[in-house]
Amino acid sequence: MSDSTPKDPPISAMIELPISGMTCAACAARIEKTLNRLPGVSAAVNFATEKARIQYPPPLQPADLIAAIRRAGYDAQEPQAGGEALRKAERLAAYRRDLRLFTVSALLTLPFLVLMLYMLGGEHHAPWFPPMAQLLLSAPVQFWIGRRFYSGAWHALRGGGANMDVLIALGTSMAWFYSAVVVLAGLDGHLYFEAAVSVITLVFLGKLLESRARARASAAIEELIKLQPQTAHVERDGTVIEIPVSQLQAGDLYIVKPGDAVPVDGVVVEGHSDVDESLLTGESLPVTKQEGSSVFAATLNGQGLLRCRATGTGSHTALAGIVRLVEEAQGSKAPIQRLADVISGVFVPVVVVIAVITFAGWWIFSGSLAAALVPAVAVLVIACPCALGLATPTAIMVGSGAGARAGVLIRNAEALERAGHIDTLVLDKTGTLTRGKPAVTDVLPALGADPTTLLRVAVSLEAGSEHPLARAVLEHAKSLGITASPVHDFRAVAGHGVQAVMDGKPALLGSPAFVRAAGINLKEATVEHLQNQGKTVVGVSHGGRLLGLIAIADPLRDTSAAAVAALKDLGIEVIMLTGDNTRAAARIAKEAGITRFEAELLPQDKARILRELAQQGRRTGMIGDGINDAPALAAAGTSFAIGAGSDVAIHAADVTLMRSDLLSAVDAVLLSRATFRKIKQNLFFAFFYNVLGIPLAAAGLLNPVIAGAAMAMSSVSVVSNSLLLKRWKPLEQAERRKQ
């Protein structure tokens, strides 16, 4: 009998491989195409980060992926512990080596630059710089300094593709070998050694500047990693010792001294202090920590001493989660990049064809090989897909890093793009617009009673209770320095209230109905007024006499109204959906400035409304806590989780707002729009540069040297434009700077 039980499909694995040997976007496109030809493989290669994110099924192994990359003419290594630091050291060593080579190349090219200035005066033969000297001086630049272009071109062609190296090697070789033939054969013709060496030197300079700028663009990750301290003060057998943070384990007790950084995530077991959490949340004000409070790795302790128990170490800290998320976002591709990828994939072959047509056309119509050579070389040299390949990823890298510093974590480039396009933002009420924790809003003593007595009786009756309403009363009394008195004969009536004997007199606290049932009169108009505002009302009596009323509600966050106003200014309609009662929802909506809301909804109702909005053509976003709003978050075009760095929130949403503040949603939209303005500027420049430059070169209006300089500077200008995103500031900081 055959087994008809369906088998689970094979689970794909994910790996990120660092790649070496790429010189332009065409290289990245070639590697991506090669990997995606493998069965079941989905790969995205990022030229700016020099990494490939690959999803692959069994029985494929990382070694198979690396072999495919090497067949394409490039190299890759499996990630290893400390590998990023090693790669950084290798990149720095390579940069310094290239800087030395560029210095040699510039010195050898200098006489040719002087020669070009000499030729501007109308002289084509300089007696101080004979042809044979030009050949001998240019050869090291062409074949030693420029060997990287020949090597890169050979690997690309061997892998069945073409890249920028092919263009540079082909263009400069045409100029150099033509000139060499003229010199060695004793022919009467113009020499183009200066064009060949100048192009190589200028392109080399452009690559150095580009490498430096790209390192600055990826600095956000390094800045985050550096924040975690290297050592921790741990309690072992009653003694405090200093150990490397890497040796800390969950459950260990550690001490955070005043002014020190928290080594790992933990919970305070003893002590009281204010902690600066701005690096995680972007919030500038310190957060008070006491027994039971959570602390996070790399946050900065204030003046108090904290004794904590480790809950998350190594890769399980909130900081490590942020680093992973930023790395994933920087390595991902936005939908807007697809056009650039398509163009980069066919760009080099098209340019070679244009150069051949240019050469043939000029030779036919001018009858001069020299006249045909110059525009063909200029076409090859000026055309470069680098700017296209760097336009999107560099902006994503800088933008996602800026977001992380502001407490806005973007899951991937697609989410970053969608966040700026939303026109309808749906909000949960509790914990999103409100603080998510009941608080006392009104203390109304009865005639002849004073608020201190009212609260003293209330706190005495509620002492020890874990009910959220009781905690609200206790915290309010504590903030005023009011302490509880002893009670006896305590009795709780479930769902109604509590009663006891205090100072020899009966005392009770509970709902208006509970107080009325005890024969105590209430001001019904006051009770109704408070309840119409969506507040929970409790009455307090002592000795058979009403002491007053206490109103409790989940108050609006201080910044919610300003955030709603800012979202409206951005052209975004704000809708509140809540499971709370209509009166409470109406109060919060009015205070926040929201005109459209729906109350008493189940989670599936929220998801249904979001689907209906999408069917109406709305580009929706949803903000919730990432857990009980999961159906609605899944139904939204872009999901925002509001919460202070929990793993659930980070992994559930497209965007995580670490500050638990609605203004962070405004920051996410503003950051998205700023980032994609930069991407559009970069793409426009890259397209415009090639659309304008190639025809001018083909028409003979560009000298190859000028073309080489323009090509080198195109990539640098794109990266530099992306780096301007580092100036972006969150809304609150931007407003403060204006004042």
Account of the 3D structure:
With 739 residues, the protein is α+β, with helices and mostly antiparallel strands. Among the domains are: 73 residues, Alpha-Beta Plaits (2-Layer Sandwich); 87 residues, Distorted Sandwich (Calcium-transporting ATPase, cytoplasmic transduction domain A), CATH 2.70.150.10; 140 residues, HAD superfamily/HAD-like (Rossmann fold, 3-Layer(aba) Sandwich), CATH 3.40.50.1000; 115 residues, Calcium-transporting ATPase, cytoplasmic domain N. It contains 27 helices and 26 strands. It has a 7-stranded mixed β-sheet, sandwiched between helices. Strands 6-5-7-13-8-11 form a 6-stranded antiparallel β-sheet, with no helix packed on it. α3 packs antiparallel against α4, α4 packs antiparallel against α6 and α8 runs antiparallel to α10. The chain is elongated and about 125 Å long. It starts with 12 loop residues before the first strand and ends with a helix.
A few lines on this structure:
By secondary structure, the chain is an alpha+beta fold. 52% of the residues lie in helices and 18% in strands.
